[in-house]
Design goal:
The complex is a heterodimer of chains A (305) and B (251). Chain A is α/β, with parallel strands linked by helices and 305 residues long. Chain A has helices at residues 2-9, 13-30, 40-50, 69-85, 99-110, 155-163, 165-168, 207-215, 231-239, 249-260, 265-304, and strands at residues 57-63, 89-94, 117-120, 123-126, 131-134, 137-140, 145-150, 196-201, 222-226, 246-248. Chain A is elongated. The two termini of chain A are 22 Å apart. Chain B has helices spanning 5-18, 26-58, 62-65, 74-79, 89-99, 112-140, 149-164, 171-194, 203-246. Chain B is extended. The chains are: A alpha/beta (305), B mainly alpha (251). Chains A and B meet through α2, α4, α8, α9 and α10 of A and α2, α6 and α9 of B.
Amino acid sequence: MNKFWERLLAIDRRIIFVVIFLALSVPIFLQIGLPIPVTSEVQILYDALEDLSRGSRILVSCDFDPGSEPELQPMTEAAFKYFIENDLKFVIIGLWPQGPIQANRAIEDINESEDDFIVENGDTLYFGEDIVVVSGDTARYGIDFINLGFQVGQELVIQRMGTSFEATFPTDKRFGLSQKEFPIMDGIYRLADFDFVFNLSAGYPGTTEWVQFAVDRFHVPVGAGNTAVQAPLAYPYLDTGQLSGILGGMKGGAEFERLVGHKARATLFMTSQTMAHIFVMLFIVVGNLAFFATMRKSDKQGLKR
Amino acid sequence: MSTEFGVWVAAFFTIGIASFLYKDNPLYKFCESVFVGISAGYWAVSLFWENLIAKMFDSVGVSYMFGFWSEKGALQDLFSGVWNWNILHVLAGILGIMMLMRLFPNIGWIARWPLSVIVGSTAGLWMITYFQSNFLSQLQKTVIPLFDTGKIQELSQIGAVMAESGRSIPFDNYFAAYLGNLVLIFGTLTGLVYFYFSKEHKGLFGKTAKVGIYFLMITFGASFGYTVMSRMSLLIGRLYFLFSTWLGFVN
């Protein structure tokens, strides 16, 4: 029996990699859906969004890059779909250089229109960039959403937005025009003029800085979508009411997809995630059993000596 | 299977990096080097255009002066009698140049001045921020009743309504209502005792500190669990990319 445990302890790590590979891959092909119960932190965020009246303006700060795409992109897409369907206007910014680019990708991906472009008043408007169609609802660039791009300065960008939004983000990124030329920016002078901030964060600067500056200094409600690594750091702010909800990792994204009624990638990936977790737990249990079994033997040998 | 060149490049690098799981190999080394080089290049270009050019030259008005930019800057505003705060970027630029003096040993001491500005302003900013957000707010929310009676009452009311339709409230809601506050207060106190080093951890004090360690261990465990979840998510994302976007096996 002891030899069995010793063999287990000396198992080639590549076998474990293969098992994890299969645990993650097979569910992708089978596309089995698992029940996804909604946790209170996700429900709080959803309720906060539901409480916003039609036409409210949301600042979406995409503070992540392609490295965190599997976790944060599904949340971004689900949120944008929800905003468009519920007539919530959203202004995209980024404290990470690639964040606003990820937001553009999300907008292109959620567009359901088959058309490429239309010509209106002499201007060519592209579907997926200037016009986005979701479930029959249409959002237009500059009126219903806008991308103001990245601004360097980490948390000081938030601090400066608190006193002057235009000074912080003077132009939009698509056309390079002054932000004041777009109707969506009417009446937005400072951060507090937004009704809600939705932060998608993969690290620093991110949710912590948004809480410290936007919530505690300028009293703007902030909801966050975090990578799973970052989520435990954000939870203390939820208990104190500083954060209006958290979407933690892919699980949070799947719950949010369920609430907004758009089951997509996060929901699909949760089966793979669950399978992998089952195997990881199994490895931990078996590894510990093997460790203690062999330790007892070596202890006995030590006594004999 | 994808016919896009970019997708093939992405697939090549994904497999190249993943090949390290088998063992270190030249393909992995190549992919890693390309990744490091591209990341460094991307940041350099991004900071050059978004920070140096945008803040130092465009917003101050130097680019406009030399005809590289159509928008007027702080200098032009000042000459026409309008105050523009962006003129202060000149001060930041001077501090930046002073920082570069470290490259010259004879006048390297000049770099201490901008460094002291950074240290002083950062310390001041973070002192207030952390005190307010991470200390006072957290402390305030620890001063709570041992049992959340309001929540318990609310739960029993909801539970009665749900029972009529044959449903029940999940157990974790009851746990949070009855024991949540108690665990929070107890965990905070024992955790603080563990970090009190002016008294030897012996007797009742030592046992309390030990309980604090258990709370810390549970926290680390939860954090590690989340980290595993995060890494698995990233792997799922890459596998989905390979099976779906690249090979087209999955819709």
